[in-house]
Write a structure and sequence with these properties.
Elements (H helix, E strand, L loop, with lengths): L8 E2 L2 E7 L2 E6 L3 E3 L2 E4 L5 E4 L6 E7 L1 H17 L4 H14 L8 E6 L4 E4 L5 E2 L5 E5 L2 H11 L6 H15 L8 E6 L1
Antiparallel strand pairs: 1-4, 2-3, 2-11, 3-12, 4-5, 6-7, 7-8, 8-9, 9-10
């Protein structure tokens, strides 16, 4: 099957919200191939503990590619314990420059409870404005919803859950089956 004929994998909305001394990363569970939902219970948010330091990561894109990147991130964190920013920059540099890695199709949101970053294959390590980051097919919907909810009295987890519910109502590649991880700042 020619590449342009392949319908491609779609799915995933991941959001990171920092509020009230907590950071929450939430992700939906839908994986779609073309117009078909292949799986509705995928887990796209993971807690990593390299060297005993907790880091939460969510990914959008190819699962195999994302797992490769998560393994690389863990190795970078083990080499630079407690320095998420440095590990993220080192991963982004490798991702952009390495002949194999630069073909990986995924994005990551990562946090250690203090920092919150979006890492891309273009070499970007972005700290979001307004303490909200979102990636994936429904990312813009979740981002807009969360930014609107941030001034409310709601905590980080409620903002993330409510924003994901709004994204799931709008984006056909996003469902309401969430994986949520919280880490204190």
């Amino acid at each position: 099957m020619a590449k342009e004929e392949f319908p491609g994998w779609h799915g995933t909305t991941i959001i990171g919200v920092r509020k009230g001394g907590k950071v929450v990363i939430a992700g939906d569970g839908q994986v779609s191939l073309g117009q078909t939902v292949i799986k509705g219970t995928a887990k796209k948010v993971r807690r990593l503990s390299p060297g005993g330091m907790d880091v939460v990561a969510g990914f959008a894109g190819s699962t195999a590619d994302a797992f490769t990147l998560l393994e690389r991130l863990e190795a970078k964190l083990e080499a630079t314990p407690g320095q998420l920013a440095r590990a993220a920059v080192e991963l982004a540099k490798d991702w952009r420059m390495d002949k194999y890695l630069k073909n990986l199709e995924a994005m990551l949101i990562v946090t250690d409870g203090k920092d919150l970053f979006v890492i891309t294959g273009a070499g970007d390590v972005l700290e979001p404005e307004h303490d909200v980051a979102a990636i994936g097919s429904g990312g813009n919907f979740a981002l807009a919803a969360a930014r609107a909810l941030m001034p409310s009295d709601k905590g980080a987890e409620t903002v993330a859950r409510d924003a994901m519910a709004i994204a799931a109502d709008i984006c056909v590649y996003t469902n309401g089956n969430l994986t949520v991880e919280t880490i204190d700042g």
